[in-house]
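batch_manifest entry 22 of 60
target: Pre-rRNA-processing protein TSR1 homolog
source organism: Chloroceryle aenea
requested by: lab member K.T.
priority: normal
notes from requester: please return tokens only, no post-processing; we will run our own comparison against the previous entry in this batch. if the run fails, retry once and flag.
--- input ---
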Amino acid sequence: VLAEKRSLGSRDGPPHLVVLVPLHSRAAAHDTLRLLQSQDSAVVRVDEGRAGGFALLCPRLKQRWRFVTAQTGDHHTVLDLAKVADSLLFLLDPADGWDSAGEHCLSCLFAQGLPSYALAVPGGADLPPKKRIDVRKKLSKAIEKRFPEAKLFPLNTEQESSLLLRHLASQKQRHLAFRDRRAHLLAYAAEFVPGQESDLVGTLKVSGFVRGQTLDVNSLVHIVGHGDFQMSQVDAPPDPLSLNPRVVKGQKKSQDMEVQDDSVNGSDEMEEDIKVLMKADPNKQESLQSEVVPDPMEGEQTWPTEEELQEAEASLKANRRVVKVPKGTSKYQAAWIVDDGEEGSEKDDDEEDDGMDDDMMEEALSQEGESGEEEEGAAEEECETMTVSECLRVEQYDEKVEEDEQMLERYRQERMDEMFPDEVDTPRDVPARVRFQKYRGLKSFRTSPWDPKENLPRDYARIFQFQDFSRTRKHLFRQIEKEETEGASVGWYVTLHICNVPVSVMESFKEGKPLVLFSLLPHEQKMSVLNFLVRRHPSNNEPVKAKEELIFHCGFRRFRASPLFSQHTSADKHKLERFLRPDAALVVTVYAPITFPPASVLLFKQRSNGMHDLIATGSLLSVDPDRIVIKRLVLSGHPFKIFTKTAVVRYMFFSREDVMWFKPVELRTKWGRRGHIKEPLGTHGHMKCHFDGQLKSQDTVLLNLYKRVFPKWTYDPHVPEPVPWVRSESALPVQEVEME
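--- output ---
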């Protein structure tokens, strides 16, 4: 622990990265930066152009810091910087502490994982001493809920800024598991070299200090918000933040350059000093393949062998029969002609069955679209109405009215699902045996078997699966802890040559967005089925349906996907939930790239105005395509005539054939009785049922049907930038309005 504390910010380690996070609109970050810069004469300052930060070098204390400012309204920037920051410096308002945007920012940071932090209170020096003490006591009491044992640092003088720097340098570092096992860096400089074929794609040269683990050139690198890429080589340019004064003097010319510029890393003066550390080996380099390319001919029947042809010929000879046929009849036509004796006995049954089959097929084809929409739930309908609502009307007021109507409909659906879970009405226009043909009955949801490899969708041919995921994970982590990998060590200032990067990454860096890189562990670029354990965030109470598009922040990744919600149990089957419940932890299932836990996850929902609302937080549970998510349907009927242990039930089905079809499925009632169907009565769906006790007249008879469901393949690694969060003066009034 002591060695780790001494290496951070020292000559051999990376600079101590401090991210300033203003939590209130009145907490000015530039005043804090000015105070931190105005240290004694032994401090060397290096400006960083338009980035809103600077580097602070203290040769006397043998310490170096890098300060970067994050705007609280843009939570993508805040979360990206917090992924790599050594310390967070929260700037509070002396009177209110933080406002609504600061409250939202803190919720996201606590859910993602908080590194070491400090609380600074700039301003308040103009208040009388007595009132200043009262304000400080009030503020300390207000922050107790979020920061129970935190110390407030006033920040008005150079002496107070020196105390804050010493506290940042000496405090214990808090570890984030997902970044400690992966090499990562925050770009200090970048240069884009267009490719030969196109100016839109080229090589990105990113310079920065390696943190976390040793960086291997053959591994893949993930640029947060942009995707996975390969590296071609790693260079070792001179350290621009060296504590050695001679090195600093030699770089006076380079200090005046803008860091957020194309030509930062490629200056002619520094080219001769750059050393190539390592180049990628094509034989050892990780592949960018993320999906399996399925073979459509796999599993098809092969050409029969000679033995199989001879067996088929022998079986044909054995089954031949002599039939009288008219002249000119072919062998194919003769095979369909039956004898008179057979015709008389089978004609009625065959005609009845054929007619029934034809009717079923016609009705099934005609109702296919309707049944598909009803069966899959209303999540797709909701997504459609969200897109249509933006272009229906131009007037702002009418748009708001339409959104209110949609929200009211969602609240009604959520309320109905709470009152009557999984219950559906049996359709009158489609036979129940056709409408629910993909469903089955189970003797016991907990103990009845269900094969995880049965009837898999076509998307499962595109994903990867581990034979034993937990064993692979333990083996990888053991390798990271024990084996020394070759590459750029922690603390080195390196330049990474990243291949086939779109020019939009460089444009984002020029605009002042942070450029954060993480190296990937083996297999982390491949697609699979990820399961997250999440809980609804208390600040959000809008209904969220399954298969609705959400934005995920998982560890160092962010992406869009349409998830399934299911119960978190220890059984082998898990019931689908149609809505994200506010009172229980649920498992969220999506197609996404493999990530080895532990990793935090944040779920956001995009509003129509572009803002992102935090709806749930949690962690990565497992990478398991075999996790069975079961959708349950409940058909309900009412007792018409009640006897000792039998009853006549109606309104569950509306045809005799449906009653016979579902006869093997066990019945239950809301008052705990169990039974089964004995026989149908009449032709309109009435049925005689036997139970283990006498029914009550107000009881309801239920029949459960089950079907396995899979997530939709809607994975999209490109997440749009959110609209900045609208600030209000204090977080408390906003919470009260949301609760109302």
